[in-house]
Amino acid sequence: MKIGDTNEVKIMVTDDITATAAGSGALRVFGTPFLVAAMENAGLELIARELPEGKSSVGIMVNAEHTAPTPVGMEVTVKVTVTNISANGKIIDFDMEARDAAGEIGRGKHQRAIIDAERFMTKCYSKLEEVK
Known about the structure:
Number of helices: 3
Strand order of the largest sheet: 1-3-4-5-2
Order of helices and strands: EHHEEEEH
């Protein structure tokens, strides 16, 4: 992976990914939580192509603007572009943009960390023992 690499994710807006379905709004339009999830997914997919078995990535920062509504029945395209890779290769920064047929609907920045999946999950679930 290198700076400038891109990935696109397309998603058809359906009733189950509206603001009303997410509980984030009262209108039947593409919900912001689903826009953010699509943005993260585009980054996840791009990184996953390069990772060896046992490695994964997790989102550690999202800064997104939802700039225009998209109705049910319209397709959204989310594109991420790698803008920075940390010196140790473990932190990847992305610019994000989202569009429907009428134009831009969102933009932002996203950051993902490369992790060892087993170690991450072990640490995560150890929290259950810590709070007992």
